[in-house]
From TrEMBL:
Coiled-coil annotated spans: none
Name this protein carries in UniProt: CYTH and CHAD domain-containing protein
Organism name: Streptomyces misionensis
CDD domains reported in the protein's UniProt record: CYTH-like_Pase
Signal peptide as annotated in the record: none
């Protein structure tokens, strides 16, 4: 069974002097020698280094207290999540699943072997509590795909104790720098080994967008990257990641539909259809997340099955084919004539079209009396408001403040309409629960009370909508 540990660590160049005295730094009362450990790690990647290009590392390591398979996923600077699985001869299936969105059908092969002699020190406070672990690592790197290519170096690794304050690392680093120790130029041992023993694949830095096509493709590329990067967190059931993946899916689909003057829809419509499918599958799990906030006990039981279904979707050939289609579209985009034009006119026209469609839907919904038909109309308006928001978001780098203001206004509008739709869903669930209770001879009164509260929430949202809409949309149609 895999387990996850968040690492916050920094690396430094080391020389023969080893680790400077850190006693008294940031509350360090003592530096305890924990001896020498021999570590032997083999790092795996595709032949074209897809994991390394994304700062993801996958290794099988022996030696030390945590021998086994380790997958490290970047979170932020100096921060990574390490997912550990027991030592075995083959890659554990749970770790294979977590890299599937990046690896797809490519084979994972041994790429680099790192043998490390690690001298460990514990930095503890006056009560003996661990503040950080400092180690001096003598590393020998061997490139397994090019026999005989080796490199040696020594580095200092400083890892914050669980629950520690990252500011402590700043204070220690200040002492290290004062002692002549320099931060490492490489973000990881693997990155240094790849650079020192051969080639290290680095993703090409995207050029600054100039044309309308450049801006659209930059936004679409960001959504593709989000879909891939969020995949492991969704599988691990990390809070809010299903919602974020669904948003990336909708942003990508909205981009293909809104900017048809830039991208040929004959090529993009099939991709947009698959993005719609994925958003729908993600919605099954997302809807249970929303209900869990309002009807916790009822939703928890249902959500377990929904998440299992979603994991199957992410493993499916259809989902992997969608990711490949996005890659192909970005590599060879089906650009139309307008793509080469300046972005302000082309993107601005597309945004105004989305706003015009939204205006029609909102005004129709406001004319309807409260009830199921109005609920459906407001739900449709919400979807179009999201599309308008994503269009403005994509156009913001080119159009500047007006598009940024529209993005914020559409976000406010979709939040209000989202609250209304959540109430619609909750009331449906409560009616189901009341029917079950009645059939079982139990009182349905509590569900009626909750239903009344949800009705009040929906009524409040509907009352606020006209004013929110005037603020959000009308002035941008000029």
């Amino acid at each position: 069974m895999a387990e996850t540990k968040r690492e916050i660590e920094r690396k430094y160049e080391a020389d023969d002097s080893g680790l400077p005295d850190l006693t008294g730094v940031g509350g360090v009362a003592a530096v305890l020698d924990r001896g020498l450990t021999e570590l032997d790690a083999t790092y795996y990647d595709t032949a074209d280094q897809r994991l390394a290009a994304a700062s993801v590392t996958l290794r099988r390591r022996t030696g030390g207290a945590d021998a086994g398979w380790h997958l490290k996923l970047p979170v932020a600077r100096d921060v990574r999540d390490e997912i550990r699985a027991p030592l075995s001869d083959t890659l554990p299936t749970e770790l294979a699943a977590l890299v599937r969105s990046r690896v797809r059908g490519a084979e994972l092969v041994p790429l680099v072997r790192l043998r490390t002699a690690r001298s460990v020190r514990h930095l503890v406070d006056a009560d003996g509590a661990l503040l950080a672990e400092a180690s001096v690592d003598a590393v020998t790197a061997e490139r397994l795909t090019t026999p005989g290519r080796t490199e040696k170096w020594t580095e200092i690794e400083l890892e914050l104790a669980d629950g520690g304050d990252p500011a402590f690392l700043d204070r220690v680093e200040k002492r290290l720098v004062k002692a002549g120790v320099r931060p490492s130029a490489a973000p990881s041992k693997l990155a240094r080994a790849l650079a020192a023993t051969g080639t290290r694949r680095r993703p090409a830095a995207p050029a600054e967008p100039v044309t309308a096509g450049d801006h659209v493709l930059a936004y679409l590329r960001a959504q593709r990257d989000a879909l891939v990067a969020l995949d492991p967190a969704v599988r691990l059931d990390t809070p809010d990641t299903v919602h974020r993946m669904r948003v990336a899916t909708r942003r990508a689909r909205g981009t293909l539909r809104t900017f048809r003057a830039v991208l040929d829809r004959a090529a993009t419509d099939p991709v947009a259809a698959e993005l719609k499918w994925l958003a729908g599958e993600l919605g099954v799990d997302r809807d249970q997340e929303v209900l869990a906030d309002r009807l916790t006990a009822w939703a928890r039981a249902r959500r377990g099955g929904a998440h299992g279904h979603l994991t199957g979707v992410l493993d499916s050939p259809r989902h992997l084919a969608l990711l490949n289609s996005l890659d192909a579209l970005l590599a060879d985009p089906p650009l139309r004539e307008a793509a080469a034009r300046k972005p302000r006119k082309v993107l601005g026209k597309a945004v105004r079209k989305d706003l015009s469609r939204l205006t029609t839907l909102v005004e129709r919904a406001l004319r309807l009396p409260p009830g199921e038909e109005r609920d459906l109309a407001l739900h449709e308006a919400r979807k179009k408001a999201k599309r308008a928001r994503y269009a403005a978001e994509a156009a913001t780098p080119a159009l500047g403040a007006p598009a940024a203001a529209l993005t914020a206004a559409m976000k406010s509008l979709t939040t209000l309409l989202g609250d209304h739709q959540d109430s619609v869903m909750a009331r449906k669930a409560l009616r189901e629960l009341a029917a079950v209770a009645h059939a079982a001879g139990e009182s349905a009164f509590p569900y009626g009370v909750l239903h009344g509260r949800e009705e009040a929430r929906a009524a409040a949202a509907e009352a606020e909508l006209p004013g929110r809409w005037r603020e959000a949309g009308a002035r941008f149609l000029r």
